[in-house]
Amino acid sequence: MTILAATATTVPPESTQQAIGYPSLFLLVLIGALVPIVPTGALVSSAAVVAFHQTAPFALALVFVTASTAAFLGDVTLYWLGRRGMRSKNGSRWLEAMRSRAPEERLTQAQGKLAEHGVAVLVLSRLVPAGRLPVMLACLLAKWPVRRFARGNLPACLAWAVTYQLIGILGGSLFPEPWEGVVAAVALTLVISAAPSVWKRVRSAK
Fold it and tell me: Which of 20, 28, 93, 137 has the greatest number of beta carbons closer than 10 A?
């Protein structure tokens, strides 16, 4: 009885987890879209693991809606800030930050794919690690209006949220404890994120 009472006091109820978790997820994904230093994919996967183990209905659906909405709003805001920088004579720190994270080679590839495939490239850019900013910058250089970018970015954010949520659900289904699923989901997300750069180094070393 003592152990059960201690556990009950240390583990917050689902209602408390949801009241704190969903706003935190929204805020962190939004910040991660604006300043790409937050591992947003790992956050979504971890939230999906926790939701998978909850008994509350629609927990996974709420994770999906929260993550995709925050990603979409963050992307559109960053694009709008980039547009302002493009129109300004002195540019802007947001535009410079985007340029610094979009190597010339990746930007040239993104411009070519954007000219050839159009909006479909936006969807792939959200799923490919480090692919979002080069394609966003290519859209800015192509002078896409914010509305056109938003229309193409919406399915991109939905596909991104589904993909990383499925990773979380996989991790949650393989392990009985939520923390084990979170560790597995984060590890898998980091492996997926690092795979392209590792493959590129292997190819260049040959």
Answer: 137
